[in-house]
Design goal:
- The chain is 31% helix and 22% strand.
- The protein is an alpha+beta fold.
């Protein structure tokens, strides 16, 4: 930790008054004017976690990100800032990493964007494997709109420095370019100034600039646009939530030096080296920061005075206070201490803090919005709702779930028609608009699920009791019914507010056992050993028949959905097993079962139906969810990757991509690890799905759809207990249902009696939408009045709600990924070393990227700058050869501090060590030989069992013994290599899972001996030396 405190930081602080590192930011007026003219663009600033000197900004409608390279060009922006950027002249643009001229790693390996929302692979958050192009796309857009004064970071106007490394810049630095424009005196060199293209006269300046930029990038696909930050429009929330470790070694060293000097020289002034200490963030996207000692919390000051070096083991939270032009790093202030970095509780608390998720209790005002218990459905609700308590309705959820917000039912009608019902908890009945509870739920936006608990969006009184569809009690619901034919066609639909009474709570395991025919009515007649309790007048035969019918219908709907173009990117996921103390003791790869897909299929159909209803009624203010088309460049790279390895891929549509992957799956049915690699590559091209207001995109109806689901409209409706957007959609549906009734009553009084059949049709919520009725004066009045009553948000407010929900959903995902990595780290920490196999994803002269099937993660192994190792990269064949050097390298390309030893990149075992190696996890070898391996705890003896809703594969404790490989090592893309994984960090730095090659010294030793023998033989033959003298090296080595 002490090594983090660099002398460069001290030097920069001491010389800050003489020179400046950064140019001043533009003024608000200058940026606004430049935005309107299309000279600068508003974008989200994202940093490459593998190389902090590289950052990327997404411009709306531009297929590739803009590279912001070098500290001066980044101009004090940090991860998550909304910035104003200018585009550099074309001659300064960078070559794409994937282009043939500059490719350092074969395979479609992207340094920044390997994993997206649709993959379940555990992300490597410490190494930045968590972002995709346009991951924050909903923040962008409206480049011409003047930004709000709120949150704008203004530090005056001026020129900007040149692009490059972290060198100092002077005021009035000259920038060489071919052409330029000025805005309020600011110099704006741009590639757009020299390009002449035909643009529509209807386009504004911003659209013309973007069109020009798109034209250049299309004409030169091997070039990536570069730019620089000229202002910070909105500060990232991450500035207030930096997590890291303090480095106090240099502070103690300098203090001792000052004491010694003080004895020699009286009246010695306090050294500036004692004014501050260094903070090293755990997130590599952030630079080191300086923390002034005078601003430290008293408890840390006291420990500094006492010389307590264990401060470096404490995980702390900090806030960036300032970043002046004179400082190469920002100034930060410590605001919280979490505890030891090696403890799970401290790490979880830090992850929640970093993502602005506060595990606090609900306010008294919020709780007061809920009714007292015991509570019963009010009698008035029976007058306004359909009573479905006599219908066989049940829930299917994880066995540990307490917030049950969806239930199912099915009836077999005549002529082969099934009436399927999805019943969703009517949470909007309890969460009224603009109340304290509504405001708090909107702020939280989503429930956060940790592996050992959850942080609810709503109070437990509502989420686990009043709103939850618990069995045997009356509950309020929104119900959707479909009449479905034997071919999967939707014949009719109905949506309304209902009262239901669930007859039982099935777990996924219960439902799967019914599907598999493992239980019959007699088995379910008892209520012991996890069997659910059955309520009311129903018997188990009713439930069994319903589950089997729903399963058959779901399979039919799923097949129909994929025939219509849906895409599935699903691979194995790691599931942790916990002991009675809540500590992970093992992990297993899992796949979902039919019972999971059964529920998913009807949930998807309900969400799609709700989306169609709200969009047809409120086309300008519907809360929808879209999934944009994939990143075209990455999709083409994936197509080339498949072609290179003998597989055909058709990425022209989501459906054709899915069918291509299914053919690959069939070909690789005996190599699941390789297929998971293909799925991983496919997900890298995907963009994140996001909530949006339909009024924001009404000019581009093609942008409303969901790419992966292949549907024109989609929303979230089925999880109101844990997602705020679902509550908003419920209010919209309630307004539409009431408007439909109001319109029908109005038409009833004005129509002749023989028109009654027309009056009873559902004009707004039925399968056929009556557009004339919706656009009529009566229809518009009814919809408007209902929207006002149920507080349906206007376009502008709804757009803000959507943006906030997107941000919170992404934060929730970060928490899940980080907690997964934390538990994986904890598991490997107990195991010490995990030996397993990995497949090579990407390969180059500096590093390789590998996929570890057992943990379902991607890791990197760097082998550049390694002492006593020779790296030979054969570019023509994309082949890597690693071999041990017999002579030490005389020259190094990097600094001595960056040079690593062979042991840093490889775990090398001698033949003697290998002979004594036991099977990992203390597994009984005899049992393994008989194929009867039992799960055992890596650490404590655990009693937990795997989640019954998944199909377990192999556990980490079940890892079989693997053979190491030897030097020289020849590696090609998709090669299988043995690796050793172990946990690093915790009390002494950021958590990480280190990956090394697993090697044996046996063959390499004898290969060196043979090489030496052949060399001496050749020398003897040339110099006529006696051959018997050559035996000594071999004899000695033996």
């Amino acid at each position: 930790m002490g090594s983090y405190a660099s002398k460069d930081l001290l030097l920069s602080h001491q010389t800050c008054h003489q020179r400046k590192y950064f140019a001043p930011h533009w003024s608000t007026d200058s940026v606004n004017e430049a935005l309107e003219k299309g000279h600068v663009f508003k974008a989200l600033f994202r940093v490459n976690a593998y190389n902090r000197l590289e950052a990327y900004c997404k411009i709306d409608r531009l297929q590739m990100d803009v590279l912001i390279s070098g500290i001066p060009a980044q101009n004090r922006a940090v991860e998550g800032d909304i910035v104003a950027i200018t585009i550099d002249p074309f001659s300064s643009w960078a070559k794409m990493k994937g282009s043939a001229a500059t490719s350092n790693n074969s395979g479609p390996l992207d340094d920044l964007n390997p994993v997206s929302e649709v993959t379940g692979l555990v992300s490597d958050s410490c190494n930045g494997k968590n972002k995709v192009d346009a991951a924050y796309g909903y923040v962008n857009g409206r480049n011409s709109s003047p930004f709000r004064e709120k949150g704008f970071h203004y530090e005056g106007g001026g020129l900007f420095g040149t692009n490059g490394g972290p060198e100092l810049i002077e005021h009035n630095a000259a920038v060489s370019c071919h052409s330029s424009s000025t805005v309020n005196g600011h110099y704006c060199p741009s590639a757009l100034d020299t390009l002449q293209i035909d643009c529509s006269s209807d386009l504004n300046d911003v659209a013309i600039s973007v069109e020009k930029l798109c034209a250049i990038t299309s004409s030169f696909p091997s070039k990536r646009p570069t730019g620089r930050v000229v202002a910070i429009i909105e500060r990232s929330p991450r500035r207030d939530a930096v997590v890291g470790f303090l480095s106090v070694f240099n502070y103690f060293f300098n203090r001792e030096g000052c004491k010694k000097e003080g004895k020699k020289k009286k009246n010695l002034s306090i050294s500036s080296n004692l004014e501050y200490i260094t903070l090293t963030p755990t997130d590599p996207k952030f630079s080191r920061m300086m923390v002034f000692v005078r601003d430290l919390p008293d408890v840390i000051k006291k420990r500094l005075e006492d010389g307590d070096a264990t401060i470096e083991m404490e995980l702390v939270a900090a806030r960036i206070d300032d970043w002046r032009e004179e400082n190469c790093v920002p100034e930060a202030r410590i605001i919280h201490i979490f505890g030891r970095g090696g403890e799970i509780e401290s790490q979880i608390a830090a992850v929640l803090f970093e993502n602005a998720i506060r595990p606090s209790e609900f306010s008294a005002e919020s709780i007061s919005c809920l009714p007292h218990i015991p509570w019963e459905v009010p009698r008035d609700e029976f007058k306004n709702r359909i009573d479905l308590r006599n219908l066989c309705i049940f829930t299917i959820d994880p066995s540990t779930a307490t917030d049950l917000d969806d239930a199912l039912s099915v009836e077999n009608l005549s002529n082969g028609i099934f009436r399927v019902g999805v019943h969703i908890a009517d949470v909007s009945y309890f969460v009224l608009p603009d109340t304290a509870l509504d405001i708090e739920a909107q702020i939280r936006s989503t429930s956060v699920y940790l592996l050992r608990g959850k942080l609810s969006m709503l109070p437990s009184l509502l989420s686990d009791n009043l709103g939850s569809l618990n069995p045997g009690v009356d509950r309020l619901a929104f119900s959707v019914f479909w009449d479905i034919s034997v071919t999967g066609k939707i014949m009719d639909q109905w949506i309304g507010r209902t009262i239901i009474r669930s007859c039982c709570k099935l777990s996924y395991e219960n439902a799967q056992d019914i599907i598999d025919g493992l239980f019959n009515e007699e088995n379910f007649s008892t209520s012991k050993d996890g069997f659910p309790q059955l309520h009311d007048h129903f018997d188990w035969l009713d439930v069994i028949r319903s589950v089997k019918s729903l399963n058959e219908i779901s399979k039919m709907l799923k097949e129909k959905r994929f025939d219509e173009g849906a895409l599935c990117l699903e691979s194995s996921k790691l599931v942790f097993l916990f002991d009675e103390d809540g500590n992970p003791y093992d992990g297993i790869l899992s796949e979902r079962k039919d019972s999971n897909f059964l529920v998913e299929e009807f949930v998807l159909l309900a969400n799609r139906t709700a989306a169609e209803v709200i969009f047809r009624a409120y086309p300008d203010s519907a809360l929808l969810r879209r999934h944009p088309e994939p990143n075209l460049r990455k999709l083409r790279e994936f197509e080339a990757f498949c072609r290179k390895h003998g597989f055909e891929l058709d990425p022209s549509s989501s459906g054709r991509l899915h069918h291509s992957l299914e053919r690959i799956r069939e070909t690789l049915k005996n190599d699941s690890a390789l297929f998971n690699i293909f799925v991983s590559y496919a997900t890298k091209s995907m963009q994140l799905a996001a909530y949006f207001c339909s009024g924001d995109l009404k000019d581009g109806e093609n942008d409303l759809g969901h790419y992966a689901l292949a549907v024109p409209l989609y929303t979230h409706f089925t999880s109101p207990l844990r997602r705020y957007p679902d509550i908003v959609v419920h209010r919209m549906l309630a307004a539409i249902i009431e408007a439909e009734q109001t319109y029908a009553m109005h038409r009833k009084t004005s129509q002749k009696p023989n028109d009654w059949k027309e009056l009873t049709t559902r004009c707004f919520t039925g399968i056929s939408f009556d557009k004339d009725a919706a656009e009529s004066i009566e229809g518009q009045e009814a919809l408007s009045a209902a929207a006002s009553k149920y507080r349906v948000p206007c376009t502008e407010v709804l757009a803000d709600i959507a943006a906030h929900c997107n941000e919170r959903k992404l934060a929730c995902r970060h928490v899940k990924d980080s907690s997964d990595k934390l538990y994986m780290w904890f598991l490997l920490k107990k195991k010490e070393i995990l030996l397993t196999e990995a497949r090579v994803l990407g390969l180059g002269p500096r590093f390789m990227s590998v996929y570890v099937q057992m943990l379902a993660i991607e890791r990197r192994i760097y082998y550049d700058e390694v002492e006593d190792m020779t790296v030979e990269w054969l570019d023509a064949t994309s082949t890597l050869v690693l071999s041990l050097s017999m002579h030490k390298r005389s020259q190094r390309r990097g600094s001595p501090g960056k040079c690593r030893t062979v042991e840093d990149i490889a775990l090398i075992k001698s033949p003697c060590e290998l002979a004594s190696v036991e099977l990992p996890g203390d597994i009984d070898k005899k049992a393994c030989a008989n194929g009867n391996t039992e799960w055992k705890s890596i650490g404590d003896n655990g009693t937990a069992s795997p989640d019954p809703s998944i199909v377990p594969k192999s556990g980490i404790s079940d890892a079989s013994e693997i053979e190491p490989t030897v030097f020289p090592l020849t590696v090609r893309l998709l090669s299988t290599i043995p690796v050793a994984l172990h946990a690093v960090g915790g009390d002494d730095g950021p958590l990480d899972i280190a990956t090394r090659l697993y090697m044996s010294s046996y063959l390499s030793f004898y290969l060196m001996a043979i090489t030496w023998w052949l060399f001496l033989v050749k020398a003897a033959l040339c110099g006529n030396r006696p051959l018997f003298l050559l035996a000594s090296p071999i004899q000695y080595n033996s």
